[in-house]
Amino acid sequence: MICRSECGACCIALSISSPLPGMPDGKEAGVMCINLKDDYRCAIYDDPEYPKVCSGFKAEPAFCGSDREEAMKILESLSKRQSV
User: Fold this and answer.
1) Whole-angstrom distance, CA of residue 52 vs CA of residue 68
2) What 3-state class would DSSP assign to 79?
3) Mean pLDDT across the stretch 22-31?
4) Spans of all domains in the chain
5) pLDDT: is 59 or 74 the higher one?
6) Could you count the other beta carbons within 10 Å of the beta carbon of residue 61?
């Protein structure tokens, strides 16, 4: 699946415990990644510092839904289950 334009839900809804460029302590669920640009595209996607945790996430309809709003709800739900 190719990521939809202006989404970035995975870069906001999910928590990341490993260090990210500009976020040495990772990020909490619901916090926008500092590397997410205004158009919701990753600024470091093609950079050697692109985190393995990010490259390991594979977009698919089950996570991404039909639009950005649905993707946020799905991923927020998954993130809450993961932290319980």
Assistant:
1) 23
2) helix
3) 95
4) 10-82
5) 74
6) 10
Report residue 2 as tokens.
């190719």
pTM comes to 0.85
The distance from CA 3 to its chain's CA centroid, rounded to whole angstroms, is 11
Phi/psi of residue 59, nearest 5 degrees: -65, 135
Q: What is the pLDDT of residue 82?
A: 62
pLDDT for the residue numbered 84: 40
Q: Is pLDDT above 90 for 37? A: yes
One-character DSSP codes across 9-76: THHHHS-B-S-BTTBTT-B-TTSPPTTB-TTS-BTTTTSTT--HHHHT----HHHH-SSHHHHHHHHH
Do 75 and 65 contact (CB within 8 A), yes or no?
Answer: no
